[in-house]
Amino acid sequence: MTTENLELSVTRLIDAPVETVWKIATERLEEWWCPRPWTVEIIEQDWRAGGRSAMVMRGPNGEEMPQEGVFLEVSPGKRFVFTDAFMTGWHPQGPFMVGAMEFADESGKTRYTGSTRHWTREAYDQHKAMGFEQGWAAVAEQLAALAEAETKAPAL
């Protein structure tokens, strides 16, 4: 077993409370999950440990990237962890990563951290070459824009 660090991560301080960021993160995935101009179609998000996470990311030139996996942990208001190493029912499939989205209170704002851990150096290098830093930073920015707009919106 290697002790090599095969984790990639991005972090951003969002000017909105954790409750708002969490609600948008889990209920409005279509609006922030992948960097524009890509879009995502949510097939199923069963927000519990062992629940199915299935979606299709679509690129501006007709690219399609299906994503099928399970949630390993869902701690409301704190974090969710997912992997593509399994399909629903704990059926193994070719693993690429374990992802985590974490939300921590920082004086009424939210410290968001998105990270991935990889089984192999090859998978780590592939994810990095795919533009992990730029892509996940863009996603964090999109999430922040939604949450900050929600926080500043006048109450009806």
Q: Based on CA inertia axes, which overall geometry fits? A: globular
Compute the number of strand runs.
Answer: 9
User: What is the helix fraction of residues, given as a range?
Assistant: 25-40%
Strand content: 35-45%
* Low-pLDDT segments, ≥5 res: none
* Oligomer classification: single chain
The major β-sheet equals: 7 strands, antiparallel
For the largest beta sheet, what order do the strands appear in spatially?
A: 1-9-8-5-4-3-2
Look at the helices and sheets and give the structural class.
alpha+beta
Cα gyration radius (Å): 16 Å
What structural keywords apply?
156 residues; alpha+beta; seven-stranded antiparallel beta sheet; 3 helices
What does this protein look like?
26% of the residues lie in helices and 39% in strands. The chain has 156 residues and is α+β, with helices and mostly antiparallel strands. Strand 2 (39-45) and strand 3 (52-58) form a beta hairpin. The mean pLDDT is 94. The strands form two sheets. It has a seven-stranded antiparallel sheet with strand order 1-9-8-5-4-3-2, covered by helices on one side. A two-stranded antiparallel ribbon has the order 6-7. It has helices at 18-27, 121-129, 132-152, and strands at residues 7-14, 39-45, 52-58, 64-75, 79-83, 86-87, 91-92, 98-106, 109-117. Helix 1 crosses helix 3 (132-152). 21% of the residues are buried. The chain starts with 6 loop residues before the first strand and ends with a helix. The chain is globular, with a radius of gyration of 16 Å. The longest helix has 21 residues, at 132-152.
